[in-house]
């Protein structure tokens, strides 16, 4: 019995909210790589619905940060602002 390789993952096109969300969390210091994917998903979900605050989104994602949450929020806000997205 053999297992087939998974299909390749196609990167998101430039300028999409998904790409912006995942790029915005690239500089956040986290414990495991999967936490980065989880945080990216939660930021994308927040960008599409704008429910709650960015701080709540990071807390709800359950990621394990190696820095203070305030530093992570500032990093994500700065990244989003550089793409022209306000996070208020």
Condensed summary:
The protein has 88 residues and is mainly alpha-helical. The protein has four helices and no strands.
What does this structure look like?
This protein is mostly helical and 88 residues long. 53% of the residues lie in helices and 0% in strands. It has helices spanning 17-24, 33-49, 54-61, 69-82. α3 crosses α4 (69-82). The longest helix has 17 residues, at 33-49. It is globular, with a radius of gyration of 14 Å. The mean pLDDT is 90.
Report the helical percentage.
Answer: 40-55%
Shape: globular
> How far apart lie the N and C ends?
53 Å
Number of helices: 4
- β content, as a range? under 5%
Structural class: mainly alpha
Major sheet characteristics: none
What is the string of SSEs from the N terminus onward? HHHH
Q: Could you tell me the mean pLDDT?
A: 90
Please report the total strand number as a whole number.
Answer: 0
Spans of at least 5 consecutive residues with low confidence: none
